[in-house]
Amino acid sequence: MIEIANNLSEVIKDYRSDNGFEQTSEKIISWANQFGENAEFVLTELNHIIPQVYISKAKAKNLILSHVKKLMGVFKYESITRFLADTEFLDLQLPHKSQKAILILLDEVLTTEYGESLEKYRKLPKINFVYFDDVLATGSTIGKDLVSWLSLIDANGVQNAHYLLTNKYKLSANLFCLHTWGHSFQRFRLQKQFEDKIDSKIYWICDYKVENHAKWNNQSLNVAFPIEEQLPKIKAYLANLTASKYEDYAYRKSHNPTNEKFFTSSGNRIIYEGLLLEKGISIIEMIKGEIKLNIRPLGLINPNYKTFGLGTHFFTWRNIPNNSLLVFWWEVPGHSWIPLFPVVNRGT
Amino acid sequence: MNINERTYKLDEVITFRKTTEKFGGLSNMSSGFSLFVNEINIANTEILYQACRFPLFPSIQEEIILKTNPMEAKEISRKYLDSTRQDWDAVKFKVMRWCLRVKYIQNLTAFSKLLGETSDKPIVEYSTKDNIWGAIPVKKDLLQGRNVLGRLLMELREKYVFEKANVEFVEPVAMPAFLLFNNPIEKVYCSDYSISDLDEIYDY
């Protein structure tokens, strides 16, 4: 098991290292041991999964550079100077959120690769707008931010949405990771909030797709998404939720995905999902007092959704989404649970 | 569904032919009436209708649904006519009625306004060659055809605009293999159902 932990440790070694957190093989093993006799099994699966879905700071910089190049193509620029002069990188999120961290990296990339900086061009009038974020899971953050930005009205009384719809502005949403289910909802939201045409005016660029739309065709379901054959305790948990919507997304069909690549095998996937789901429910059972309605064993979700959560497996050097499984990030004083990826200001 | 041919006086009816005309929004080809069925984005009613032809072929459905231009979707559909569901001729009017109800419920304000603006006049899809879905000119001021689309629109108008029947959701068509990507098509709700609570995840 130490060898697997060493491998994993090497991949995720820069997780929150900027905040002084040190990821070690020992810590990884301590986390795995919480699964008892299944510790090595869980680590083996993770060792297969995490290299596919962990974005180190160095990788993030490479991805940001590739986004810049793609954006220059999409917006039709050959010169980085002209591109930067015309482009605003939207800074809409709170300071501690991912967008700000990505914009800092973007500035570093621009300096290293082109000897440029955002500041130099900040005050020039813009026609291209770029929204960066790490993950679209439910899409609430980006959806809300885009609705707000598109609704802004300038001194001439004209809405940003109008400029976009009339091709005076261009807009691109840039993500390291996009979940297809959440994306569908946000596209529909933007269409209904503004006009259908807005859907074709937003260039979505993402590096990694989480295909978790259980009703789309041939999705790889590269998340934890349990099948219906589960322990009575797990089925009772779902039945007792007061939520009422999308219960038909709680379980995946056992024959999907048709070709398993994300986990080591379809059999191991079933075992892994069952173990982590059960442990997530145990964590929820540790909560004393009111259980917030958005908490689910496989990650936070809309309180009205009768599902186990999104089961997101996607991690960056600075954070993991709250739509990830509780077993990865839950850390509450008094609860006997050690997270693999400790986070700031989360939990109850 | 047995619908006989009828004759319409051009100056007594509301016609629609091109999507850019005043009543173009009544056409299935019209943009601006996006749909969300089984949480899948569908650009317009024609695309949904064409996808329903191929319930046993999800890859054809995908090819159709990925289009936003209904003419292109129709072209794809024509490529695969051999894969059309066997009972299509028997069920296609029922499917169209369902498609129109979905269009109505998910575009409530715009579509009910448009239907209301037709007053109580007959609605006719003006066509030069299709006298089944629409009606074709037989004399200078006379159209003739079964006008199924127009009559389904009138039925919708009667029920939801005139009688103001409350519609919370649209039930799927009661027939075997009413599928989208191998999944049964579920109840379709108004757009607010899917949108209004999207941000509640962070209310806690």
Strand-helix topology:
The complex is a heterodimer of chains A (348) and B (204).
Chain A lengths: L1 H10 L13 H9 L5 H15 E2 L1 H18 L5 H7 E3 L8 H17 L13 E9 L3 H12 L8 H6 L4 E10 H14 L4 H4 E9 L21 H9 L25 H21 L28 E2 L9 H4 L19
Parallel strand pairs in A: 1-6, 2-3, 3-4, 4-5
Helix pairs in contact in A: 1-2, 1-3, 2-3, 4-6, 7-9
Chain B lengths: L5 E4 L4 E3 L18 E3 L2 E3 L2 H7 L6 H8 L4 H10 L8 H19 L1 H9 L6 E3 L10 E4 L2 E4 L2 H15 L6 E2 L8 E2 L2 E2 L3 E2 L1 H5 L9
Parallel strand pairs in B: 2-5
Antiparallel strand pairs in B: 1-7, 3-4, 6-7, 8-11, 9-10
Helix pairs in contact in B: 1-2, 1-3, 1-4, 2-3, 4-6
What do these coordinates show?
- The complex is a heterodimer of chains A (348) and B (204).
- Chain A is an alpha/beta fold.
- Chain A has 13 helices and six strands.
- In chain A, the strands form two sheets. Chain A has a four-stranded parallel β-sheet with strand order 2-3-4-5, with helices on both faces. A two-stranded parallel sheet of chain A has the order 1-6.
- In chain A, helix 1 packs across helix 2.
- Chain A is globular, with a radius of gyration of 21 Å.
- Chain A starts with a helix and ends in a 19-residue tail after the last helix.
- The model of chain A has no long low-confidence stretch (mean pLDDT 96).
- By secondary structure, chain B is α+β, with helices and mostly antiparallel strands.
- Helix content of chain B is 36%, strand content 16%.
- Chain B has seven helices and eleven strands.
- Chain B has a three-stranded antiparallel β-sheet, with no helix packed on it. In chain B, strands 2-5 form a two-stranded parallel ribbon. Chain B has a two-stranded antiparallel ribbon with strand order 3-4.
- In chain B, helix 1 runs antiparallel to helix 4.
- The model of chain B has no long low-confidence stretch (mean pLDDT 95).
- At the A-B interface, helix 7 and helix 9 of A face helix 2 and helix 7 of B.
